[in-house]
Each structure stands twice: as C-alpha cells, then as structure tokens.
Specification:
The chain is an all-alpha fold. The protein has 25 helices and no strands. The chain is rod-shaped.
C-alpha cells in the first residue's frame, strides 16, 4: 500500500493543527473498529495537516503493524522518534517491528533505549526477555543449518515463531530447512503462505524452486530459479542451485542416451558420476540408483544391481519401480525368498494383474527351489531322452550303492546311502512320463506314490540278479569278493 504512505498531493495541504486532530480522531475510531486501512488514510491526512506531530506517525505505525506491514510501520516509528526523542511508544513500536522483521539484535537496541527513559517499565523488561529468547534460538537455528542439522534448525525456528508468528524471515529459514530435510510439502505450504503476502519474495520463490528440484521437476525448478535471478542477480543460493540442477539433469540424460544406445557400461559410469553431484537430491538419486541397477542387470552383474536397487529403496521407500527391478534381479540371482518378498511389497503398493501374476510366478519358483532337483541329482539336463535318463541312473546308482562304500567310515556310508536313495527317487520320477511332466510343471507328486525302495529298484533295473552284478544279494550288506564285482565298478570309474 505505498499509495497510502503518500503524505501530500501535488498541491500540499495547508497546515491546520485543528483539522489534523480531527483526522486523527477519525483514525482512532477506525482503528478501534479494526478498519486499519481506513485508519491509515485518516492518519495520513492528519500528517498532511500537521507533519511535525510524533503521535500521528506513531498511530499510523500501529495501524501498519496490524496489517503486518512492518517495514512501513518501522519507518513511521523511527520518524516519530526523530520528531520527539522522548516518545516511548515510538521506541516500543520500532522494537516490535524489528522483531517481526527478524532482527532481534536491533529490537533489543530499541528496548534498551526505552529502559533509559523508563527504567522500571516492567512491560519492556518482559518483552525484552522474549526478544532475548528469540535471539538465542535464531543463533542456534543458524548454527544448526550450517551444520546441516536441519531437524534441529526447524525446532529452533519453531521456538522463534512461537513469539514472532508473522516473521517472514523466520518462515523462510524454516521453509528452507524443511526442504533440505526432505519435507517438501510442508516447505511448499510455508512458501505459498509467504507469496500470498508478497508474490515477489525472492527467498520464497527460490525455496519453491528448490522443492521442485528435489521432486525431480527440474523444468519448473529452473523457471523459479531464473525468476529469482532476474529480480536479484546476486542471489547466491539460487545461482548455485540453478547451476547444480542443470549439471545433474545433463549428466543423467547422458546416461539415458548411452543406455538407449546399448552402451551399458558407459551408462553405468555416467549414472555413477551423476550420483556424486548432489547427495541431497533424494528423489533424483533414487532414480539414478535404479537406472544404474538396470545397467548392472544388463551386464549380468545381478548382485550389483540388487545393491543399487536397495539404495534406491532406502532413499525412497515408495519407489515402485525399484522394488520391481530388485525382485527381477533376485529372481535372476535365484534368491527366490527375497524375490517373493519384493513382489508382495509391490502388490501392496500397486495390485495390478501383471504384478499379481509376477508374485504368483515367484512363489512357484520359490516352491520349486525348495524341492529336490532330480535333474541335478542324476547329473543331466532337463531336455534329455529317456535312454539318457536310464544311463544316468545306472551310473549314479552304481557310484553311490552302499555296498561299494562298506569299508568307509560310518558318516561316509550314511551319506552315500542317502545319495543312493535320492538317485532312486529321481529316477522313479523322471523315468515315468506322467510324473516327469507334473514335476517339470511344478505340480505336487504326493498323490502319485513316492515311497521308493531303492534296493528293489536297483535289483529290478539290473534284471533282478544283484549277485551277478557284483553285490551280495542282501541289499546293502557289502561287496562280494568275486571277479564280477571288480569288473563292474572298474567300468563305472
């Protein structure tokens, strides 16, 4: 309301103390009715008719204060003091304005001047104590901000705002600390509140740009930084943030370009460089880690990829794609329990048909991973013929038959007997086309009869003549000493 500060028109009004008092009276009435803008107009008219009356400026300062126009109020309070250096209300209003403008040190100067005039003014003593409290917390807040202890800074700024609720300087410092601590929505609320009162407040505009930058909305962030620099080219924080934001955006895009060209190792290195630019940009860095995790996956380095996705999730626990990518990497690394865990988390966050199907597949793979691998037990590939399955059984059964290890230690004999049983179990499933089909499809075999007598299967496989094959005929009772026994096992070896 700069127009309201005009004390005279192009034609100066005539000095008329009586008319000035009348205007002052009208202003007081408007002030009492909380019509502060009208009160300012009346006090301005009073000043135009008598510009050397301290109380007129003092009253207009009070009205400006009620409208939170503390700069105008401070100017009037100081004018009133210059007219009458014993005008206590002028000092008090100047002190309060300085506090509301975020200058507790200067506020104390004015309060001390009041105490030189009125040493026993208990009101001033109490108000001075509050200002000292603000001074203490402001100093602590600034120290905490420099140390990047932003939560502590916010605490101290809240204590300042408890006393000086409308101080824009305190609000902006709190908003910046909130932005730096990742509480972007809370920071933006304060910025919008400041900008409603002053749309050209460079600090609030800068902090809003900072929030957008930390939300990975770099295009809009650049617009806000540029707006600040147009108004205040020397705004250091805006200039540095703008430069850092452009550097990060360009490096990330270089990595994306390398990825699109299938230059995965180059892209991996570029994302690594981007991650070093601004550790405080949580959202963008989470995306960079996730992207780098994809490069590791493309290069077959699954553990590296898992580690990068975990870093992304640590930065942003709501990052759906990072969970999906890590789940896929866990699957490729055959870490099925972790894979299922991540797909469950994904479904909690986004229960689409595709995600639920991925969870179902992961659970199936987990179940398969926990059962015996019959192909591995027989030492064969999944697509071998029945004839090759038989050959594999013959070889493994003779290798692990307990009679062959009858002279070994007890623990060895027990291990070989267990392996012999597993070989028999594997053969019983893979040699049966129906069982094999169900096994390959991950279906249960419990209802198909899995009670296997390995000795009987061995005897049947070799034509029912265990003695002729070099065994004693009594199951797992030890080797025979005949020539057939020696010839039989030497062929296997």
């Amino acid at each position: 309301m700069e127009s309201e500060r005009m004390e005279c028109d192009s034609t100066s009004p005539e000095i008329d103390p009586e008319l000035a008092e009348q205007c002052k009276s009208e202003g007081n009435t408007a002030y009492t009715l909380k019509q502060y803008s009208k009160a300012i107009q009346c006090y301005t008219q009073a000043i135009s008719h008598n510009p050397n009356c301290a109380s007129f400026y003092g009253n207009r300062a009070a009205a400006y204060m009620m409208l939170d126009q503390y700069k105008n109020a401070l100017s009037d309070a100081q004018k009133s003091i210059s007219i009458d250096d014993g005008f206590v209300k002028g000092y008090l209003r100047a002190a309060k304005c300085q506090l509301m403008l975020g200058n507790p040190d200067l506020s104390l100067v004015w309060y001390n001047k009041v105490l030189t005039l009125q040493p026993r003014n208990t009101q001033v003593v109490e108000e001075k104590r509050q200002v000292s409290t603000v001074q203490f917390h402001l100093e602590k807040a600034n120290q905490s901000f420099e140390k990047e202890e932003f939560r502590t800074c916010i605490y101290h700024m809240d204590r300042c705002l408890d006393i000086s609720q409308t101080c824009v300087r305190f609000k902006t410092l709190k908003a910046e600390a909130l932005a730096m601590s990742g509480k972007l929505d809370d920071s933006l609320i304060i910025c919008h509140d400041i900008m409603r009162g002053d749309s050209n407040n460079c600090d609030a505009i800068f902090i809003k740009g900072l929030c957008l930058y930390y939300q990975d909305d770099t295009t809009r962030a650049h617009q806000f930084f540029q707006n600040v620099l147009r108004v205040d080219p020397d705004h250091t924080k805006a200039r540095h943030a703008f430069r850092r934001s452009k550097q990060l955006m360009l490096k990330k895009e270089e990595g994306n370009k390398a990825f699109r060209s299938s230059e995965f190792e180059k892209a991996y290195d570029l994302y690594t460089e981007a991650l070093s630019i601004d550790p405080k940009n949580i959202i963008t860095n989470a995306k960079l880690y996730c992207n780098r995790g994809l490069m590791a996956q493309k290069m077959g380095e699954f553990e590296k990829g898992i580690e990068d996705c975990s870093c992304a999730i640590e930065l942003d626990q709501k990052y759906l794609r990072a969970y999906q990518r890590r789940a896929t990497l866990y699957q490729q690394a055959e870490q099925y329990e972790e894979c299922v865990r991540d797909w469950k988390k994904v479904c909690e966050m986004d229960r689409t048909t595709e995600n639920r199907q991925s969870l179902k597949e992961a659970e199936k793979q987990l179940k398969l991973s926990k059962r015996k691998d019959y192909y591995k037990i027989l030492g064969i590939e999944k697509n071998v013929s029945q004839e090759e399955i038989k050959k594999a059984y013959r070889k493994k059964a003779m290798l692990h038959h307990p009679d062959r290890h009858s002279s070994a230690d007890v623990s060895v004999r027990e291990q070989e007997e267990q392996k012999f049983k597993e070989v028999s179990e594997a053969y019983s499933v893979l040699s049966d086309l129906k069982k094999k089909s169900r096994y390959d499809n991950g279906q249960d075999l419990d209802d198909m009869g899995m009670d296997i007598d390995p000795n009987e299967m061995f005897s049947t496989f070799f034509g029912g003549f265990p003695m002729e094959m070099g065994f004693s005929g009594s199951g797992f009772s030890g080797f025979s000493s005949g020539r057939n026994s020696f010839t039989f096992f030497s062929n296997v070896q």
